[in-house]
Design goal:
The chain is built from four helices and seven strands, in the order αβαβββαβαββ. A four-stranded mixed β-sheet has the order 4-5-7-6, with helices on one face. A three-stranded antiparallel β-sheet has the order 1-2-3, covered by helices on one side. It is α+β, with helices and mostly antiparallel strands. It has two domains: about 55 residues, no CATH class; about 70 residues.
């Protein structure tokens, strides 16, 4: 219990006031620098700015701490009537993604995302449909 009391006392003496505000153009160099150091190399400034995206900068008296991006993401989930009918399945997913993009854009979504355990499906969606793999998920920015 004395160790927990010491931790609590330390934390109470180090309370940092953190606030947030909308990301503005002057923040973009800081965002770019942070992304360059990020362990997620697939992230780019353009993923943080633009239509249907909203970001906030979190900061304290020492300056910016981080940027939080809010997006409307459409998550797709599909199943096939016949998993062996690859030609028809491919044609249906091409049409389904085209339809999803139109519907998503019309409703303010900024990205489409899915997960799969199928290496061939993942390869098809990245090679043919422009999805990007990111930590087990596949994303298409629209």
């Amino acid at each position: 219990m004395p160790a927990q009391k010491a931790v609590n006392e330390f934390m109470s003496n180090r309370l940092i006031m953190v606030s947030s505000r909308p990301l503005v153009e002057d923040d973009l160099p800081t965002l770019q620098s942070a992304l360059e150091k990020s362990p997620h190399p697939d992230q780019k400034v353009e993923h943080y700015v633009g239509d249907n995206k909203y970001c906030e900068v979190y900061e304290d008296s020492s300056g910016p701490i981080g940027v939080l991006r809010y997006t409307k993401t459409l998550r797709l989930c599909a199943t096939w009537v016949n998993n062996e009918d690859r030609a028809r399945n491919a044609q249906s997913i091409i049409q389904a993604v085209k339809d999803a993009i139109v519907k998503a854009k019309a409703n303010g979504f900024s990205e489409i995302i899915f997960q799969t355990d199928s290496p061939s499906y993942a390869k098809f969606c990245t090679d043919k449909l422009g999805f990007l793999e990111s930590h087990g998920e596949f994303i298409k920015f629209i």
